[in-house]
Amino acid sequence: NDCEAALKNNDLRQSLYDAGSILMEKVLVNLHGEEHKSRRTIEGLLFRRSFFRLYEAEILPPLIEATLARLIDSDPNDLKDISYRIMLHVSLSFSGIDRLLGTDEESEELNQLLIRLGQAATLGQHTGDEHDRLVANIESAINEFEVSYFGPSRARRELLVARVKAGEMSEQELPRDVLTLLLLHQDKLNLSHRVLLKEIAFYYLASAHTSVHSLTHCMYEIFSWLNVTGMPVAELLKDQLLLQRCVHESVRLHPSSPEAWRVADVDTAIPNGCNLKAGTAVVIDLITANRQPEVFGEDANKFNPNRARPSARNPTG
Ligand code: HEM
User: 235-274: per-residue pLDDT in tens?
Assistant: First the structure.
């Protein structure tokens, strides 16, 4: 309850990524209040039900099939690597970054950029003495991303948006991605080149790393559970609802970030009677919250897709 109240408290602002400001400053997840609302309202125009249907029904199945077909004979096959190969394409496509060559070398370069950019999200948790080297590495990754990918992708979309504004083509013909949407609404948002670059780099890393993490845990949990229960894979695949419950259950047990961090923007309180002075740091322990027996049942620590759904709670925690 306390975690939920803290997450819903608008006086607490995001602070998990403060140390990664080199990339994360002014990106959606770090915005607060009106600034957050106005950017989110526009970006939300992309993430409609029809968009997810398109991905689920038309884009993902052939992409996964083609990726697996290429890897089927490689040995060893690592699930994390396979997931990155799939998410690379999906994340670029969501974000609005064009692949210019489509070669394996380009995929490898983009994959390396993804890993280097991703370091920005966890800089705050770095405990070693490599901080300055990491920051320099992230900075050069941002610059490479800008020159090789973001710049050409922005230029192409700007031409298309100009044609829409001139009445030469319809909005429906535009690419469906975050970058196009932001360019289309630049008159309201007025984002600088640097902020646009960071926002798109953030989308690229936020969609990929989280999904790869979740998918890898999920496959491990599902196959372990099938081993214990003796249920054949084919039977599970026929039961789409159970399959979805498996995904929810795995995301609950393995949140993409074990903690959420917030800081009080002004003096505030949460319903357990805890008063927070402005500037107080709040750590929300998602792993523990998602395994509360009072909410999820006595076996909350276990993967059990058949568990009774907690009332008025998200099954994913
Ligand atoms: C299984 C996959 C995913 C998981 C587990 C996940 C998890 C999360 C979590 C926990 C947050 C909130 C962080 C916080 O408030 O402290 C978040 C925010 C966000 N995620 Fe994801 N995510 C996933 C996939 C994606 C994908 C595919 C995209 C892009 C298409 C994406 C884009 C974002 C954005 C833009 C935000 C910021 C939202 C805002 O502040 O309004 N995520 N994600």
Answer: 999 999 999 999 999 999 999 999 999 999 999 998 888 8
Looking at ligand 1, which atom is closest to the CA of residue 47?
30
Domain 25-242 has CATH 1.10.630.10: yes
**Residue 207 CA, ligand 1 centroid: distance in Å:** 7
Peptide bond into 152 cis (omega under 30): no
Token pair for residue 227?
Answer: 């081993």
Question: Considering only CA atoms, which residue is closest to atom 41 of ligand 1?
Answer: 29
Give me ligand 1 centre to Cα 229, in Å.
32
Crossing angle of helices 79-95 and 60-71, in 10° steps, is 140
> Taking each helix axis from N to C terminus, what angle separates 79-95 and 104-118, rounded to the nearest 10 degrees?
90
Pairwise CA distance, residues 142 & 21, whole Å:
12
Q: Cα(107) to centroid of ligand 1, in Å?
A: 23
Asked if pLDDT for residue 75 goes beyond 80, the answer is no
Question: Which ranges constitute the DSSP H helices of the chain?
Answer: 2-8, 21-24, 33-43, 49-54, 60-71, 79-95, 104-118, 131-145, 151-165, 178-184, 186-189, 193-229, 233-238, 240-253, 286-289, 293-296
| Helix spans in 96-192 (H) | 104-118, 131-145, 151-165, 178-184, 186-189
Dihedrals φ, ψ of 270, to 5°?
Answer: -115, 155
pLDDT band per the 50, 70, 90 thresholds, residue 311: confident
Task: Determine which residue's CA is closest to atom 27 belonging to ligand 1.
Answer: 207
Domain boundaries in the chain? 1-16+257-317, 25-242
- The pLDDT tens digits of the residues spanning 92-141 come to 999 999 998 989 899 999 999 999 999 999 999 999 999 999 999 999 99
CA distance 115 to 205: 8
The pLDDT value given to residue 309: 86
